[in-house]
Amino acid sequence: MARTTTTVPQWAATLLAGAIAIAAGQASAQFTVHEIPTLGGDRSTALGVNNAGQVVGSARNADGLFQPVLWENGVLTNLNPFAGTQGNANAINNNGEIVGFISSTPGTVQRGFYWNAGDLALLEPTSGSSAQWTEAMGINDHGQISGSAQVAGSNGFQAYIWDRDNTSPVISVPQVSGTGAGFYAGYAINNNGQMTGYYQSNLGFEQPWRGYIYQTSNNLSTDVGTLGDDNSYVEAWAINDKGHVVGYTDTNLFFDTRAFILTEDGMQNLGTLGGDFSSALGINNDDWVVGTSRNESGQARAFLWRDGVMEDLNDFIDPDSGWILERAQGISDTGWIIGLGQLNGEFRGFAILIPAPGAGLLLGLAGLAAARRRRN
Description:
- The protein is mainly β.
- It is built from 2 helices and 28 strands.
- Strand 18 and strand 19 form a beta hairpin.
- It is globular.
């Protein structure tokens, strides 16, 4: 499939449009929503994005199987070389390296994968057993890959970190002190080697799952806390290079769930769009947070939170576009926001660029780097 090469005039047009929107006031500006197409099926989703606006996720093919995909400059590429299997691409770093999972690869059950410039490597479990699965959820710019692997025994699965040059786990994430044996899932990893995820102290529903942060520099895992009590469910979904974490937490026994941001000043409730639920799923280095929330009518809507205010992402787009943006999954430092919505009633992944003030240089550098990788 042919790919188009982004040119300097196109970047200039993008930056000019963003500058005009910023100057005019973003709340009243309308931004273009880009559709992540399918592979002949009925659904797609967007799960990760980098500063160059390269988007990864999954798209259903004509056989009804979800495939891990890369969307770049309007071109959709299937990353899965194994016929009859399916999977997701979960994250992409600023070098264009992609991680995710593919189910039932030949001779195995589910395997995480690492993809770079057309080459795909499967991530192996700790035991080497083909009957155990792995999944990759995040990758930083240094090539550290965060995820989980099935393990023998009652714990079920554990969080691990792989390296791009080694398909076996290189770090086994330790338990949060005092929590006892349990299972751990690894999610996002930042450029300082800090990883987020969730854990449960034992299998079953006796204990709630809780969010944690793992730091490679001291090999310690720490509970992120809660806005509720010890029975609250918490997940830590994403982390930026400042070490600021976002996710969701229950706030009381009635499971009122709220998006949060955790900074040096503690955990902050981000509120909702008027309903009874919100969850934060992505954060950039400007502490812009995205996620999903119910509005006053109980409908799921994608949100952007910045400067202490939660905004409905649908307020940034043409109301006659046919789009309803339901979940914002990730955000780049350049202002690319991706997620899942409905386009004329069909579920589709989306990408929308809402540049932050001062993001022009980042956009230009990201575009240069992406063009150089394509030429190579």
